[in-house]
Amino acid sequence: MAADGRLRRAARAVVCWPPIALAGFAVATVLAFSWGCLWLGHYQHRAGVHFFQNLPRWAFGRGGTTIGAVYLTRTNTSDRVLEHERVHVEQWRRYGLAFVPLYLAAGREATRNRFEIEAGLELGGYRPRRATGS
To answer: What's the pTM?
Structure first.
C-alpha cells in the first residue's frame, strides 16, 4: 500500500514538473485555439482571458470550457465568468495535460469539484449570488 502511494506521488511530481506541465499547457492551448478557429468562433481577449465565443453549443461543455489558455463558449462571457475561467487557465498552467484526469477524478458535480471550488462557484454560475443588505 505505501509503495502504491509513493508511486502515485512520484508520477504526479513528474507530470506536474513545471517544464512538462508548461509543454502540456502549450499543446492544450494550441489545440483549443485551433478548435475555436475551426468552428469560426469570434476571438477576443478580455480580463486576462483568451476566448472564442459564438461557437456551436456542442463545441464545449456546460456554459463553456477552458482548455489550456483558451476559453470556449457561445455567449457566457461576463466579467464574473471570465474571472472564474482565468483561475482555470492557471490550473492548466500548473498541471498541464495532467489537469484532464485530475479534473475528471474530482467529479462532475461542480459544487464538489475542488477545481471549480478554487475558481469560485458563484463566479462560474454554479451557485446563485447571495443577496446583500436587508
So the answer is: 0.88
